[in-house]
Structures are given as C-alpha cells and as structure tokens.
Amino acid sequence: PPPLLEPLFPPQPGASPGFAERVRQHKVRLEWVRAEPAGLRGAVRVLNLAYEKAVSVRYTLNRWASCAEVPAAYQPAGPADGLTDRFAFLLPLGPAAAAEAALEFAVRYRVAGAEYWDNNEGANYRLRGRQRGPLAAGLLQDPDSNAWIHFI
C-alpha cells in the first residue's frame, strides 16, 4: 500500500477552542487536512475582507530547495457566520512524493492589496511519510496477532 502522510500538528485546527477568534485576528487559518491517495486535501478559513480574494497553498517536499503552489477553491456552502469564507485545496502528491520524508506547507491569502500567511506560527505545517498496511516482508510479526482471546 502507498505511504500515508501523517500530520505533525493537530489535523483539525478548526475544531479547537478559539478558532474563530484566531481567524479574525490573523485573517487566514488552516481549518483541517486529510491525507488521501490523491494527495493532501484540506480547507482554509479566511476573514471576508473583500469580494475578490485569492487563497493558495505553497508546499515543498525538499525543505524549500524548491516549492510549488496550488490555488484553493471557494466553497459556496461555507460557514454561515457571514464573517468568514471557506476555501478547499488538494495538493496533488503522487506515490513518489508521498514517500518523501517530509511535506511542509503554508497558506497564502491575498485580498484588497494585502497578503496574509498562515505558516503555523512560523513552524510551517509539516507532515511525514509513513508506511501503512501490512508489514513489509521480512519484518517480524506479533505471533499472537491472530490469537483468540477467551474471557471467562
């Protein structure tokens, strides 16, 4: 099976207390991410400062020796608070990219001539590749992994 990307940060910052206040204060915040076979999918919440806005995710697989950027798409069925908008993104990572040691990303929000970043308080959002599924051939398995447990 392909490797799974494991976040080195809470994968649902939007579920934490005070999230709405952090969006108001910083203008842009990552809401959640999820590793999928197609890549890394996620959502970003931005403060609605103007009608025209652009949200993108800049990412690297080689510690910023090179990077790529993908636009995030506006989600019309977003939050009903009237103050924020939600944007969704997909970082298209192939099997080779997902097997890399680390993925880092930051979110960029451009609106009304200004630019705001969410880079996880300067640490970037980091994920590491982790093998999933059955153990690789040659590795020891727990001899009791298929054992029955009997309760009296």
From TrEMBL:
InterPro entries: CBM21_dom (IPR005036), CBM21_dom_sf (IPR038175), PP1_regulatory_subunit_3 (IPR050782)
Cellular-component GO terms for this entry: protein phosphatase type 1 complex
Gene Ontology biological process terms from the UniProt entry: regulation of glycogen biosynthetic process
One example GO MF annotation: glycogen binding
Residue stretches making up the CBM21 domain: 20-128
Pfam families assigned: CBM_21
Protein name: PPR3E phosphatase
